[in-house]
Amino acid sequence: MATVTAGMVKDLREKTGAGMMDCKAALDQNNGDIEAAIDWLRTKGLAKAAKKSGRVAAEGLIGLRVSGKKGVVVEVNSETDFVARNEEFQSLVTTIANVALEKSANVEALLNAHYPGGGTVQEAIQNAIATIGENMTLRRAAELTVHSGVVGSYIHSAIADGLGKIGVIVALESTAHSDELLALGRQIAMHVAATNPQALDASGLDAATIAREKAVLTEKNAGKPANVIEKIVDSGIKTYFKEVCLLEQSYIHDPSKTVGQAVKEAAGRVGAPIELKGYVRYALGEGIEKQESDFAAEVAAASGVKA
């Protein structure tokens, strides 16, 4: 059996909100497997859902640019938040986003693309590392385009035009007036920033994720008649879709309707069909584990004094 450490218990507690002893028991029961322990807690009603810790290792900035029928979003990471306030770093991220908008949002192609002023984007990053003194990396990039319509956008915690901690672009296909669409696109982008949907609709969800949700619901209601469990699971999955699928989510600007209904109503107002084709949401450092440190101990070590 795997050894369950205090760090593992702490990690599970942060992800689920369950009690310390419950987390210890869950890890013991599941041989130290964090994901299995999360499911175990959920079947016992001790954890509402599996939530990733909000603390992340990566600092830096999200860069966003939109022009015409195309929008891009990039993430450039640094070691500390101080760099995000550096004008040279901000200029670097803005320029990389502009290059992505003009050339490609494929990371490999973007790194090899020409950087204004000379060299490649990769070389510009290396030069910034040498100048600023911190490691930096272009972690990811994405783009959305429409044939007819607009790409709406929103930057959260903006520190400059198109630069912030969360960036969202939304593709709306329509022949309606662009000003109307841009306003709608921005509102939906704000919604996406706030709710972080997992997919546009149920068809975009991973089959394994849905199967996992069904398994948790089934186990949680073990002992009940099969037909009752089937109804409970069916109802639970529908509720799950409403929570994680963008078109089925309650619209933050008017909770009395879903995002899909809001789009349909907007189409009626502008006199032309509107299709929400897709979205991209980048939150700085999401999915990267943050290495915790004892700042006092680091300072003491640097000065040669024991903390």
Task: Walk me through what this model shows.
By secondary structure, the protein is of the alpha+beta class. Helix content is 44%, strand content 19%. Among the domains are: 52 residues, Ubiquitin-associated (UBA) domain (Helicase, Ruva Protein, domain 3), CATH 1.10.8.10; 162 residues, Tetrahydropterin Synthase, Chain A (2-Layer Sandwich), CATH 3.30.479. A four-stranded antiparallel sheet has the order 3-2-1-5. Strands 4-6-7 form a three-stranded antiparallel sheet. A hairpin with a 2-residue loop joins strand 1 and strand 2.
Question: What can be said about this structure in brief?
Answer:
The chain is of the alpha+beta class and 307 residues long.
Topology:
Layout (H helix, E strand, L loop, with lengths): L5 H11 L3 H10 L4 H10 L15 E9 L2 E9 L8 H16 L4 H5 L9 H12 L3 E10 L3 E8 L6 E2 L1 E9 L3 H18 L11 H14 L5 H19 L14 H12 L3 E10 L11 H9 L4
Antiparallel strand pairs: 1-2, 1-5, 2-3, 4-6, 6-7
Largest sheet: 4 strands, antiparallel
Spatial separation of the terminal alpha carbons: 36 Å
Which of globular, elongated, flat, extended, rod-shaped describes the shape?
flat
Provide the structure class.
Answer: alpha+beta
The level of helicity is 40-55%
CATH superfamily of the domain at 59-198 and 262-283: Elongation factor Ts, dimerisation domain
Query: What is the residue-averaged pLDDT?
Result: 88
Helix and strand element order: HHHEEHHHEEEEHHHHEH
Low-confidence stretches: 48-57, 302-307
Order the strands across the largest sheet as they lie in space. 3-2-1-5
* Known CATH architecture of the domain at 59-198 and 262-283: 2-Layer Sandwich
Individual helix count: 11
Number of strands: 7
Please report which band the strand proportion falls in: under 5%, 5-15%, 15-25%, 25-35%, 35-45% or over 45%: 15-25%
Instruction: Please identify the top-level CATH class of the domain at 59-198 and 262-283.
Output: Alpha Beta
Our Rg estimate from Cα atoms comes to 23 Å
Under CATH, the topology of the domain at 59-198 and 262-283 can be stated as Tetrahydropterin Synthase, Chain A
